[in-house]
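[audit] Reproducing an earlier prediction to check determinism. Same input, same settings, fresh worker. If the tokens differ from the archived copy the diff job will pick it up downstream; this log only records the rerun itself.
[audit] input (156 residues):
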Amino acid sequence: MMETEDFSADAALFARMRRMWEDIDPVPADLIDRMVAAVAVEDLSREYALLTLVEGAMAAVRGDADTATLQFSDGTTSVLLHVSATESGARRIDGWVDAAALAIRLVHDDREWTAEPGEHGRFAFEEVTPGVARLRLVVKDATGELRDFQTPQFEV
């Protein structure tokens, strides 16, 4: 019986302390909304880039080839990818990035392809095996700061 009484006394003490602090230093009304927003945008460019299917078609470009155009953006950097099948059954990925890219890698299972950014941010990967991949870039933003940009996984 002693433990129950101690628990009740502790609970009453904590309740009085909570009321005292609520009176002295109340929680801001918008704190929860601000915290949810802060967590939602934290590291947005790395894990939560927006994937938009711009155009996708099972179009016969060269025989039975299929193509898809994908756009990824984090609000600062945008990447446009055009994926098409090659005659060998592999894929070709043509891409464009609107930021100064210093490194461009396509990660697919345990394999990686690298591309050099060309004029106007253009790059390409050839003979990519079909499957799920992710694009990773190191870009220089408008302030000159280097940052990572990573897309969600997408089907090649």
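[audit] rerun output stored. Observation attached for the diff report: The longest strand covers residues 100-108.
[audit] end
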